[in-house]
Batch of 3 targets.
Target 1
Amino acid sequence: MFLGLSSAIQNLNAVAIGDKDADLVLENCSLVNVYSREILPETQIAISQDRIAYVGKDASHTKGKKTVVMNLEKKYVTPGFADPHTHIDQFVSPAEFVKKSLLCGVTSLFVDSIDIVSTCGFRGFKEFIKMTHGLPVRFFHVIPGGLPVDRKFSRVKTLSFTEEKSALKMREVIGLGELFSWTKVTKRDSKTMKILSKALDNDCVINGHTAGASGKKLNAYIASGILSCHEPINFDQVVERLRLGMWIMIREGSIRRD
């Protein structure tokens, strides 16, 4: 569905300069510019395939006989929202989830497929990724981190270290999902530390889950290269994590709204 930038630059360059026709031109937009923090009225946007080629006051040089032109009548145009942490495999198929996310302006999903891996292992993980191909939303997959929380109390499936290394080579996979069993990190569990090191060697994203952690335990967790969390439930917990360099995700969950 989406083209890589490296393969699109020749075409985007040609459209932006006017040597090639755009597929779509949006006129009379109120553009919300998140870079300059401005709302720019009467903006025109030229689009080629799945990327924006030109933004400015006059896109007439990008129009051709087959270019579709839409007058947005001063409606606002904004970048799509990105959901940085979600478990869509808990509820519905990716195709059904996309129908709802697009209505809310969400165009990018960072997916942590804990339930699929817990029940179907590595094969299920790969099949779930295939289900996200060809959909009109960008999917960024992560390897579920820390399964199982404790083998004494859980018989769920997990990925071997070899499978995790293989998964990190997949173009759709950008890193590790939330390491919710943070005691495995503070106690330096061998398998956990190996995959953390492997992810860091590959410049991967590593998501955190630090519910209940503070002080030296939180420091040890962050010192292991995990720099995001969506679990703080009050102001003090948020500030503690921010002061230690963590990215904090503010969430409104279906189970609890914190």
Target 2
Amino acid sequence: MEKKDFFKLIDKHIPLSTQDEWDNSGLQLDNLKADIDKVLLCLDVTGEVIDEAKEVGADFIVSHHPLLFSGLKTIENESVPGKFIFDLAAADIGVYSIHTPFDKVKGGNNDYFGNLMGFTEIADFTSANGFCKYGDLKKATTGREFLKGLKEIPYFSQINITYSGDIDDRIKRVGWCTGSGSEFYMEAKENGCQMFITGDVKHHVALDALESEIILVDMGHYGTEKLFPEAFKKIMEVEEEKLPQLISSKLDTNPLNVL
């Protein structure tokens, strides 16, 4: 399909106008082609992802996290993202990123994450920050039993889970924010949540949450957002006949390892 029409379809379902001021969603790097036949979907653009895009013959990469966050004054081959830009341009592969709009949109990261946990009825926080969601368990249980149950679900089975608070406390309402959202833990408590799940929890935030008597769970930035390719496909499936071929990256781009 024509490249410009592909961008219009994305914006139709995931409007760029909803992005936060600090974000840089949208076209990151154009290519010289008028049409797009294959698109590689990924969480992050890395050197390995670029190689994968070449191998599958992708014309464009659609990532969740932007390739470019701040203005560039110099593009150097030895820098990141400079070396990525040179590599992509040489292969005539473009990049489009859809970040905070995808976190907020219905069916996006946060809704999809909630569905994976088994919640069928999902609500927004009353603060309307656009990111955070919550769901009620059918039956109250302990935080420990809830997390143990999640570990039996394939998506969560390989995620490293850390927490602060007493996970033997009983919970009925769970809140979450995929990516990095630990600053919203008090909003979670104000919305009646006994547990709040996110990623990138900082030491002092965990200490504060401990004193606030809410179970704060860290599943990692990557762990809570690696679902992006499948969630993107799900939202765009209504346009399936018009779309180029969408290929989910098979790579694990989590930069953190565990001994």
Target 3
Amino acid sequence: MRICQPREELRPYVRYYWVLESDEPFSILTFPIGCPQIIFHKKTPLYIPELDKSQSQFTISGQVNFPAHIQSDGSLEMIVAVFYPHTVGMFIDTPPSAFYNLEISGYDIENRQLNEIAQRIFDCENNKDCIDILEDFLTSKIRPVLNISRVGSTIGTLLSVPLTSVKALAASACLGKRQYERVFRETVGMNPKEYARIVKFQKALWQMQRGESNYAGIAAECGYSDQSHFIRNFKELSGYTPEALIKYCAPYSDLFTAPA
């Protein structure tokens, strides 16, 4: 896998891009990472058994609250743009709440300009040039949006203090609780309470990735009420208890790790 950093003007909105080419079949367990993605498959798309479907050649992957396996038949070449939790809607002119817990075809949102960009990427042989094509499009879509700024600020608070109440987040965004919940859901793709579960889970993965093995300490650090709550939530989002996951694979938090 090759990681590419976005150009400077896109860095507040796009976390990173990754490119993967493989001629070996594989099956990998994935977890909710808290960030939507736009995916371009230049060869055979990935199959997701939990959804009993293959990704579209051009896929938009929304916020999810379940673990899933991704499977390749050994003919894989894909380019992926990973966005911050609250920014993808600006670029696709569709609220992320429309594809909650879904992997949808990018063609289904009927965005002519985006469809043309996808076709240009599929027609381009050099993947670096493909990312340049995508970045030119994304840069052209940047515009100041108050709700994106408000929600982004509160997500920063959640990442630092996952236990922060929805009421406190709403107050910091200068919105009423109900209005904030609606704006958050439209901007991020799930409600703030559910998103906080993803943040806690990813922060726990990050602690384990760094070698922490005191589960009571992880629970306290990540905002869980107790160790039992932590283990229950962890299993819901990964399919494994923390101890079992360590035996299955090396813990890795996408949300709390800066890819290089």
